[in-house]
Amino acid sequence: MHTVDYIIVGQGLAGSAVAVQLLNRGRKILVIDDAIHNSSSRVAAGLFNPVTGKKMVKTWMADMLFPYLHDFYKQEETRAEEKFFFPMPLYRPFLSIEEQNEWMARSAEPAYAGYIETIFSAPAFAQVRDPFGGLLLKQCGYLSTTRYVNAIKKRIEDGGMIWNEHLDEQSLQVEDDAVTYKNVQAKKIIYCSGVDASRWFNWLPIRPLKGETILVKAPFRENIIVNRGVYFVPGLNPGEWRVGATYNFHDHDPGITAGAKVELEEKLTELMDLPYEWKSQEWGTRPTTPDRRPILGAHPEHPSVIIFNGLGTKGVSLTPYFSEVLVRWMENGISLNKLVDIDRYKSVYWTSPK
Ligand SMILES: Cc1cc2nc3c(=O)[nH]c(=O)nc-3n(C[C@H](O)[C@H](O)[C@H](O)COP(=O)(O)OP(=O)(O)OC[C@H]3O[C@@H](n4cnc5c(N)ncnc54)[C@H](O)[C@@H]3O)c2cc1C
């Protein structure tokens, strides 16, 4: 029998971040991942942006999450000797003169001081439709998620074990203080399995939210991300840009759709004033929760079965910080913030099978 400290199921953004935290602490891990091509983490544009939504407000816990994510990804880049983290200003055109005035006033608020690079009260970028100017934000950028996940996979291969397979639940035995999977024993098993929430956690309200993006070739000259209605983010190759995303709770079918292509191209034309050539289209499914907060903690009846899920639309900014929260809870007994603790769903959704 082989012994490790933890088994991690899934190596998307969630499993990768947990693996990093555990390897940093010298823990022995086995990661099991079936690496399906359309996992949310592999199709994400990788954007991180502290001011989001139609109303453009500072995102939940931005002051904690953003400094943390910059340090986390930079450290992993240095370790991997590979580039996958791209901090870059993000431009949000104003929709009206009223919005411009609101932001002029808001710029004096200390809460926004660390995030505003410049407020433009007139058109600032020739290839962007911004008649009322816009907001240039800092602490933004994008993560090349596939390169990052591949780099962490390499780190796991070097410092732990990784099996490329679908976890066979029949081969898993669970006790209160240990789990055994095939010939490997561990203290705990951590499910970071996205929308495929496993038999232990299928009672949780993790709602699949399908999203599609398109990749276009366009002669955009600025070194910025543009985001209003859709985002326009650099792709892997020079001259390529990812445009996204759609949000569809009702479509559970695998695959891309013609409707999403039309929607994204319309929104792209509203945002940008430049020619483009359509190259390809991607789809994936985000694991969302009703309160838009992640889910961390142990199964109600099996303390050795842990979950880190519900990253929704913001896996890039949430996983670095909350993977440390999870590991500190498991290793040092530091209580979980009630807003992310699985306990908040137990009383509503859990019924014991006994
Ligand atoms: C179109 C689209 C665009 C997005 N854009 C952004 C963005 O710009 N910025 C942002 O922050 N977020 C974005 N997201 C959201 C982001 O992708 C998610 O928040 C994040 O990827 C979720 O990561 P995860 O690790 O929880 O899940 P996943 O990425 O789904 O990873 C789960 C992994 O577990 C594996 N797995 C599952 N079950 C098993 C099993 N039984 N055995 C073995 N392996 C298993 C899967 O194969 C997969 O590799 C986007 C999502 C989509 C779909």
Model description:
This protein is of the alpha/beta class and 354 residues long. The chain folds into three domains: 162 residues, FAD/NAD(P)-binding domain, CATH 3.50.50.60; 48 residues, no CATH class; 81 residues, D-Amino Acid Oxidase, Chain A, domain 2 (2-Layer Sandwich). 29% of the residues lie in helices and 27% in strands. Strands 9-10-8-18-19-20-17-21 form an eight-stranded mixed beta sheet. Strands 12-3-2-16-23-22 form a six-stranded mixed beta sheet, covered by helices on one side. A hairpin with a 5-residue loop joins strand 19 and strand 20. It is globular. It binds flavin-adenine dinucleotide. Flavin-adenine dinucleotide binds next to helix 1, helix 2, strand 17, strand 21 and helix 8.
